[in-house]
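#struct-pred
JK: can someone run the complex with KG4? inputs below
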Amino acid sequence: QRRGCVGRLLAIESSCDETAAAVVTTDSVVLSNAIHSQVPIHAQYGGVVPELASRSHLTAIRPIIEQALADSNTALSELEAIAVTTGPGLSGCLLVGLQAAKGLAWSLGVPLVPVDHIQAHVHAIHLRDDRGAGGDAPPGVYLALAVSGGHTSLCVVEGPGETRTIGQTIDDAAGEAFDKVAKMMGLPYPGGVHIDRLAKEGRRDAFTLPRPMIRRGLDFSFSGLKTAARNQLEAIGEMGEQQTADFAASVQEAIVDVLVHKALEACRVEGQRELVVAGGVACNSRLRAVISERGAKAGVRVHLTPARYCTDNAAMIG
Ligand code: KG4
Ligand code: ZN
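RT: done, structure tokens with the ligand placed:
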């Protein structure tokens, strides 16, 4: 149903391995959020294969746009703009979403809005829906920790589309660290969610793993942790059920410890008391618990992005 003079826009996301389209109102209400995941395609290779990803986007893009329009009961003629991810991402993948968006915008005579993927992650906290999301966005300027498979960034969000990056990874992203260690442990791709699940039964102090650069500035590094994990796994050899859970819990604790420490340090340095956590890794149950607890102790209000808007989706692009 049309609400007053609020407009609708179609948003498209195809930067990596999810083909997604959403209809979002101009006041940030999500009317539909359709996603086609390519996990089954890439799982057999243990990671995203760019060429296969682009081809899958090509076949999925039209049905997913049609689904987003149908789910929200929106006619093409009702759209007031088309928003699309223009980067960062895999170029062949981005191209598919961009061409679809350009074609639609041109044929409908509406504006084409280019959107930065990381900016979208850090703004997802503003989305509202009828499943309980919304109402928890910070009122003004906030600090954001954006953690995903491709990025680990700390930024100050000064307004819509106005972000200042104050820290980022110098090598792997946090999600990459989760996924690569999971792969070494023989877990399916993407491994972050499996480490999260196994860690619930494990002892977090069973293995000693490094916290790279934890007290050195606001940039991150995860490659040393990955190497340490590989060395320990090689030394252990075959692991039993409990040992696997212990290893998952110990690796997760090391990653979470670094993320939480740096995010709160960034709040202190910037004099910020509002912290938004976003991106695929923000689904991690231990990160959600620890950052809320340690944030409260440090006098920082922590805003957790709802899980469905953490992993790649088009609503956040809207
Ligand atoms: O935001 P996203 O969907 O894609 C990128 O922009 O990269 O993030 C995907 C990443 C993957 O590395 C995945 O393993 C990780 O988010 N992830 C998790 C969990 N759920 C997703 N990592 C740890 N624990 C989770 N529960
Ligand atoms: Zn992402």
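RT: quick notes.
The mean pLDDT is 96.
Residues 120 and 221 are 23 Å apart (CA to CA).
JK: thanks, will look after standup
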